[in-house]
Amino acid sequence: MICHIVLIKFNPNTPDEEKEAIFSLLKNLKREIPEIREWSAGKQLRKTDNNYDLAEVGSFENLESLETFRQHPAHQKIRNMIRAVGSWTVIDYEY
Q1: Could you list the pLDDT tens digit for every one of the 95 residues in the chain?
Q2: What does the CA dihedral 33, 40, 5, 24 come to, rounded to 10 degrees?
Q3: Any idea where the Stress-response A/B barrel domain is (predicted)?
Q4: Rg (Cα) of the chain, in Å, rounded?
Q5: Would you tell me how many other CB atoms lie within 10 Å of the CB of residue 88?
Q6: Which of 31, 41, 55, 60 has CA 20 to 30 A from 21's CA?
Q7: Predicted local distance difference test score (pLDDT) of residue 34
């Protein structure tokens, strides 16, 4: 199994509407991409300058299913939206 964790930080001037649109799409990715085994997305509860704003955690059967997820149009759409208003950090590990 592969665990995929992404931490997202929005630029300071990102409109709340854009943040909410990205979060809504993230929450629903499992419905669109069958390679996702488990999925969760959540907002940061404690706001500080150093904290990230959103997190997503997913599990995948293997690296091939993770790569299929990464190339899926629904994932690409969200990635492009985030790229326009923020940045992210990713870790993928086997367990």
Answers
A1: 999 999 999 999 999 999 999 999 999 999 999 999 999 999 999 988 789 999 999 999 999 999 999 999 999 999 999 999 999 999 999 99
A2: 70
A3: 2-93
A4: 13
A5: 16
A6: 60
A7: 97
